[in-house]
Amino acid sequence: MPAFRPARRSAVAPFTVMQVLEAANRRAREGRPVHHLEIGEPGGGPPAAVLEAARAALDRAPLGYSEALGLPALRARLARLYAERYGITVPAERIAVTCGASGAFVLGFLAAFDAGDRVAVALPAYPAYRNILEALGVEVVALPTGPESRFQPTVEALEALPEPLSGLVLQSPANPTGTTLDEPALGRLAAWCASRGVRLVSDEIYHGITYGPPAVTALAADPHALIVNSFSKYWCMTGWRLGWAVVPEDLLEPFTRLAQNLFIAPSTIAQHAALAALEAGRELDARVEAYRRNRDRLLAALARGGLERVAPPDGAFYLWVQIAERGEPATRFCRRLLEETGIALTPGVDFDPVRGEDWVRLAFAGAEAAVAEAADHLAAWLTAAPGRLSPA
After folding, report:
1. Architecture of the structural domain at 8-46+282-382
2. Which ranges in the chain are annotated with CATH 3.90.1150.10?
3. What is the C-alpha to C-alpha distance for residues 217 and 170, in angstroms, rounded to an integer?
4. Fewer beta carbons within 10 Å, N or C terminal of the chain?
5. Residues sharing a CB contact under 8 Å with residue 97, sequence separation 6 or more, in sequence order
6. Residue 181 above 90 pLDDT?
7. Is 388's pLDDT higher than 70?
8. Across-strand partners of 246?
9. What pLDDT shows up at residue 14?
10. What average pLDDT does range 118-132 have in this prediction?
């Protein structure tokens, strides 16, 4: 048999949260209780109108391919979203519907960056940015952040880099920290990128989920930014695998060619459902208020258990919590917590391979009753064993 080997580009880090989910599901199959605080998935499923629209689309079969960049009606409706939500005019022709935000990142990174280009990503950050870029042969430049910058990149950090960049990836609200960039901070970063020919990529999939001022789109600071969004988070459509990108004009042709060849088209039934989702704002805003209550319950539980070093959770549905004072690395802390209580958290190494063993991420998008129960168990466990170092 020939000595085949996997391609070197496949040697990316695993997505740890999926491994935690697998362990939690295995525990559940054994009949043991599980409290899910590991996965960033809204509880309750999509609005009823989404399911009704999908059923109606099935009745209008056949559901063939859409155009490569999506149904014209959906692209036009998304263009209207930018006018309604941000007061910004975006031509429907620049909106590309994709197979989830993940598909938008693959297409956008391929269209914008060559192998060997250098793209900056803040740490901590959603790990797929790094892993997709690395799989494409792009050099990832880590930008460590901390409380002093609200866990967001700054112009000063960019200025300190010894070599020039080709791109910068931002996320606001951010995963795992929940922090946001206000308009002045976003404007400074965009101006720095524009003055140096650095492509700005903005992940805005948690827009709509904020607990103070609404999130600002990078298009307000840079009309040439590549914007990625998704129906998974605010619209609660994770399994429908539908996202979109606002594509700069210079990338539109290459983005389209790549979409035609790599994905052919996004899911047609999901696109019909998404049209209904875009009209469900009132119901979805009520869910955001439930997330707020979940956040506050967990913050109180963590404080009772002695963990109060938390990134400012302005939006999204995550808490980024420092556990260094507990005396054990996050990977072991999370494994022990799951085994002893059934509470599943994500160790910080998923988001920051350098300092992540000092941090954990809690996701609070689940049903209120489930999160409340998990919060009580967590506070009790933390209080019962403060700072205990478990055996390996």
Report:
1. Alpha-Beta Complex (3.90)
2. 8-46+282-382
3. 11
4. N
5. 66, 69, 70, 71, 74, 75, 78, 242, 243, 244, 266, 271, 274
6. yes
7. no
8. 95, 227
9. 82
10. 97
pLDDT tops 50 at residue 391: no
Name the DSSP class of 264.
S
> Residues spanned by CATH 3.40.640.10 within the chain?
48-280
Chain centroid, CA 314 distance in Å: 14
**What is the Cα–Cα distance from 53 to 231, expressed in whole angstroms?**
15
Q: Do 244 and 97 meet the contact criterion of CB atoms below 8 Å apart?
A: yes
Q: Per DSSP, which regions of 153-255 are E strands?
A: 167-171, 199-203, 226-230, 243-246
Question: How far apart, in whole angstroms, are the C-alpha atoms of residue 288 and residue 365?
Answer: 9
- Nearest CA to 369 out of 61, 77, 44 is that of 44
The residues facing 360 across adjacent strands are 321, 347
Bridge partners, 344 (sequence order) = 36
Provide the CATH number for the domain formed by 48-280 in this structure: 3.40.640.10
Place of tokens 């605080």: 37
333-341 long-range contacts (CB < 8 A, ≥24 apart) are 333/360, 334/20, 334/360, 336/390, 337/378, 337/381, 338/20, 338/23, 338/24, 338/27, 340/381, 341/35, 341/377, 341/378, 341/381
